[in-house]
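Example 3.2
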Amino acid sequence: MKVLIVDDDALIRDGLKILIELEEDFEVTGTASNGQEAFEKCQKKRPDLVLMDIRMPTMDGVLGTKLIKQHFNNIKVVILTTFKDDNYIKEAIKSGAEGYILKNQPADSIIESLRAVSKGNIVLEKEVASALSTMLKDEKKPRLKLDISTRELEILELISEGLSNKEIAERIYLSEGTIRNYTTGLLEKLKLRDRTQLAIFYLKNL
């Protein structure tokens, strides 16, 4: 997996590069110091995953994520930051980030988070997940009437728990291809863009 590291601190960029390149299944394809530079590197390097800080000069990580996702929806973005600010969390996830983790985690935990996202999971560090859940509950609107089946609702709930298609298939004894078809159908039916939006939709409305 090709990874682009984005952080305005050169020491952190270099440290993450060394850490990630110790893993045989990862390759650091480049580094950037802000969101704008990250977008430009994505145009040239086409990484599989961007590891993005939040607070940076010129363009922050939230805007950088939004820009990357608008043009390269297949590139996954994981926010790695020291800031557990509620607004940053909400805006980063709304912008399409597949993960939001904190820099105080052990090195092996960061690597496992990247692997999980590469497999289609949504990764939120425990404190971040708790903050996001509280925010979404506070924003909840009256329960919507939706034209979705019991099976679709079950799959939507499992997506909101961060499970991949393979894990959902194993949980409810269906093929991975069937789960993929259900997921595609839910995205079309609910007019949403990706699994992260499906998870947020479930937490906020159901």
